[in-house]
């Protein structure tokens, strides 16, 4: 059913004062098929949301409410911390027909892997299997009827979208090395010395040399071992991955292009960017701020034994809130790009 | 007439390879009431526009054409250099029912002032009077029937929108001082030592200590003498003005708020931002990238003899292309915000 | 006496974990005439200083101590908060022959002005008069024998050095307008939402539209009323001021150049930068990071009634720690530029 | 001989108007053992050098001269383009006792490898063998008597210093993957669309996905195959490398620390930065601007099969001009750190 023909979806955002919460509000408030019925914040109950999300000034009169004021919704978006999310999920699922979780708690199918990467045992292992991964490009059919959706991490999304087509097509093998670059908004809106402007500005900070949690998501989706390092770079928004993978015998540029075309030829939000020359040969997060695109590119030398893959996205949009809204559109039979049409800016 | 009821407007952009041209294309291509029929570039004839405007990848198949391939359009947008524009205006006006000029050549009503600020005599003085200033907030009625529209400069727009309500209401007097800060995109897409990243990055460059051309536009609109200095700051997009003006006897905060409310209470793209506390007390260009808002704020001490006025906008949108599209919407009876709904991003 | 002939000065820094404290350590540790005998921090007692000042790795084995471990020193540098500093000054002056205070508490000679700008009554008004202003360019002779020195604020230093020569020479009159731009390090090393990278990066934040405390220092030094607004810009280091002042009858470019030459012709750290053309016509804080220079420039139109004055410096060096070390050099008869020779970087 | 006992070295810089040339001038002008006798520029003959190097204002009266005005020098620094340098080297070597070449032409010992990476045959293959690599940490003894020195590339220096100790000690094997991040100054002072601020600012631009010339230098020095990708990040100065290498059986953290200690324990400009916690756990180019340090760090998981190595430096200093001055100091028996004492800034 296309809900645009009858009524708007009633949705709520839990944890709406943070950056992912704010981006959900930005997208949902201007979404023609949605009514934002509630946005919760513990600290800011009763305060107008545009106080912390100044870009929404003049666009909404919505104020934050407390979680105990929530009733029942078509869809509930969770921008809540990991651990807390898995603990409270039994409560959340009772509040909406569809729960779209942006925390990390239901992304990893194996509770043991969760414990290895999160350092705590999973508290709702029985629920993990009930979540569909929130990536329309790979799980569109299941999402049409999903009542529980787990949106992947920002760096994981860039890695999964870049590497899965090559892994599926049997073009790459062995261990993948991933150099992930990320802007500061990925660390959230909580102030701390590590995000103090004077410390973070211009930094090239290796904050996760090994074992970043998103590494486990990429390994899970590709079925290949992954060695990922995450570095904070000078940017507020943006994630960009540089991946290197050994090629299977016979794999060449033609086969790689074909694999991406087969997977993404009709995708509205994936663009393959791999040119021989020009200023914009490869994906660059710089031009993706605010957009729901994930740009994917690659390079390999004639006769090379490995391929270099590059992918970029806005961590708060395609790497989070935009991806979640895309899932909502799929789930409720709305046009998949509805509310996600912004192209991004150049120059920016 | 509301053209949405019948057909899309056929429009063309002259000088579409530059930054203002690219921003016009970004807005017009996604505008539901418009068909972009032509985009000209001398150097790039026949090349796809997304080669220089990579944010438009996947959104258009449009290629640049040469100017001699232009026919006739409902509206013609001119993103052409000053001097050349005034020289060729007789030719341009024959190509469209409505010409929307983003150059500086028809902004100043007095040819002598033009010569003082541009250093050359005006070559089409007789045409100056036929242009309506492209600012819907101040000239909406005239724009509904205008066939020739001259969009003000980016810094001028920020200054005029901030100061005219106070000047009109007789709240300020004497010489205005204006400190204008601007990002690098205002200098256009031509490479030169002054815009080399290593030189421009992090610069606080006073590039026009006095006599900037936009100073003349603010003086013309307010009827007050203006002393403006323009400084390039670390940003790609964004213009922000800090203005100081002497208050007329009896003028106070209440009167200033009232003047802005009277002028802008119903305006879709002007927000008065002047809070006592909080992180976002005053306008900040940082959150306006891509949006058509001009945020205006002010501060004055009790009993102070002068007022401090702050205004901010995206120089390529409300300071240029967005303003031009807003004029098009007014001119053709379309909803004024059509195609200009993007809220801007936070954080960004 | 030139202490280089006999022994090194024993100095201590109170509040050495902050940014001004760290800059003092950077300069003093490499200063050939100084031995850093102690650096205090309440939170980090016993921890190596290069843990929070990583640029000093490999250059020192110094660790933070507690204040109660201080004994007696030739010179004591105070990088302590205002209010606390005035309250504890009787204690501090007993610890050293020379106290060099970088807080705001002893900069304003009139306790009433202090109360107006700091919002609290001064707690040691009797001591104010015993401090010599820490600006060698204006108070060199008094500094040679000063036992108590109060270093001016970062923005105040830029304003005082730019405007005093013109005020002294009777070239300017009436109210001065000052637009002050500052990097984020001026706010110190304490994390808070206002300095979160995602909020502060790229901001043009008017954080003090009126009544900034440094305004009072500029007014005191020039004897003229000042209307200053302070804006945070995208930079970590750097302060740049744009000032406008009405000219006295007969004042012209020649007279202004002469006034600066008379005042600063022999100064090692003041450069007059005012060229007709070129990329580097006026002062720019961009190239001053790490240096002790204050660059001063100006522009005026022939026949203009006012002058535009620009000044720039590194807020942590000439606007703080470097200025303090320069005072130390003067006080103890060392070469004035000793330990302050770094030229600054270009490009940077 | 220690020339400080007798006279200053007469040196000249060819190609002194560029960024490497300017950095050489900055370091050499303040170097107590050196007299800068000439600085050449074709375009700027007769113009003061501080016109293009504004950080040197007030520190020198030197003007650019033409190359035909050169006579004979103790040392000649070449900041000249590749190809031209090898062609003119027979001329240059006649002008000085010691030639220190910062171009790429004499870094690769195998002319065939040069041709593979530079795309042209080497024009002075017979001279290649007469150059000593300009890296004191690896070639100090040979440099003491070298008359021809070839300074490695900026990214190559970071890679060689990080990886050679591990390769020498037999701790790593197989193909190395190198992700190199670089600021915009590495591209030099020539303006072009790729370095336009609006395009380059905030970019994450993969400009050399494969086959960057510095890749060949790292492979030559380590004797291992290297797959390097170079990405331009938001910075003016700074190079940072993230390298991954397979470990030889038995190689562990202890062995790696020991290898670095053995190689660098007494080195003045190499710091091993690899901490378990804290804000500054690993090397970060952010704090190295202006300094001659190369910080090297690493991380590996217990039982991991590969090591992650991080190195950072200022591309214009340790990655170029500073390294060249360090070689000069070694060559002429001066203290190795003379003129290179600047610590770098934090915050910055």
> Which stretches of chain A are poorly predicted, pLDDT < 50 over at least 5 residues?
1-5
- C-alpha termini separation of chain A: 39 Å
Number of strands of chain A: 13
Query: Structural class from helices and strands of chain A?
Result: alpha/beta
The CATH architecture of the largest domain in chain A would be 2-Layer Sandwich
How many whole angstroms does the radius of gyration of chain A measure?
Answer: 20 Å
In the CATH hierarchy, what is the class of the largest domain in chain A?
Alpha Beta
Instruction: Let me know the average pLDDT of chain A.
Output: 96
Q: How would a crystallographer describe the biggest sheet of chain A?
A: 7 strands, mixed
Indicate the overall shape of chain A. Answer: globular
* Topology order of chain A in helix (H) and strand (E) letters: EHEEHEHHEHEHEHEHEEHEEEH
Described by its quaternary structure, the protein is homotetramer
**What is the count of helical runs of chain A?**
10
* Strand arrangement across the biggest beta sheet of chain A: 8-9-7-10-13-12-11
Tell me the strand percentage band of chain A. Answer: 15-25%
CATH topology of the largest domain in chain A: Dihydrodipicolinate Reductase, domain 2
Count of individual domains of chain A: 2
* Fourth CATH level, the homologous superfamily of the largest domain in chain A: Dihydrodipicolinate Reductase, domain 2
Q: Biggest interface, and residues per chain?
A: A-D, 45 and 45 residues
Q: What portion of residues of chain A is helical?
A: 25-40%
């Amino acid at each position: 059913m296309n809900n645009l023909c009858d009524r708007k979806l009633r949705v709520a955002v839990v944890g709406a004062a943070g950056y992912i919460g704010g981006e959900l509000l930005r997208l949902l408030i201007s979404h023609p098929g949605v009514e934002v019925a509630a946005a919760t914040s513990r600290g800011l109950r009763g305060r107008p949301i545009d106080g912390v999300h100044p870009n929404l000034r003049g666009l909404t009169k919505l104020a934050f409410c407390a979680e105990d004021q929530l009733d029942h919704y078509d869809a509930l978006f969770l921008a809540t911390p990991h651990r807390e999310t898995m603990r409270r999920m039994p409560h959340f699922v009772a509040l909406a027909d569809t729960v779209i979780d942006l925390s990390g708690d239901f992304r990893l199918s194996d509770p043991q892997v969760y414990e290895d990467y999160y350092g705590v045992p999973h508290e709702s292992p029985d629920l993990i299997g009930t979540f569909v991964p929130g990536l329309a490009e790979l799980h569109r059919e299941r999402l049409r009827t999903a009542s529980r959706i787990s949106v992947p991490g920002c760096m994981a999304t860039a890695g999964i979208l870049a590497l899965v087509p090559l892994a599926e097509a049997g073009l790459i093998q062995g261990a993948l090395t991933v150099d992930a670059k990320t802007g500061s908004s990925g660390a959230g809106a909580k102030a701390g010395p590590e995000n103090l402007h004077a410390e973070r500005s211009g930094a090239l900070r290796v904050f996760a040399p090994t074992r970043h949690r998103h590494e486990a998501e990429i390994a899970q989706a590709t079925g290949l071992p992954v060695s990922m390092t995450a570095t904070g770079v000078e940017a507020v928004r943006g994630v960009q991955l540089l991946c290197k993978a050994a090629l299977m015998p016979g794999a060449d540029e033609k086969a790689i292009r074909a694999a991406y075309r087969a997977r993404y030829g009709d995708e509205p939000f994936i663009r393959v960017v791999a040119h021989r020359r020009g200023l914009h040969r490869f994906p660059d997060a710089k031009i993706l701020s605010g957009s729901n695109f994930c740009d994917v590119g690659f390079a390999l030398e004639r006769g090379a034994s490995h391929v270099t893959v590059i992918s970029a996205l806005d961590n708060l949009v395609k790497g989070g809130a935009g991806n979640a809204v895309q899932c909502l559109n799929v789930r409720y039979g709305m046009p998949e790009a509805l509310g996600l049409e912004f192209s991004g800016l150049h120059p920016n």
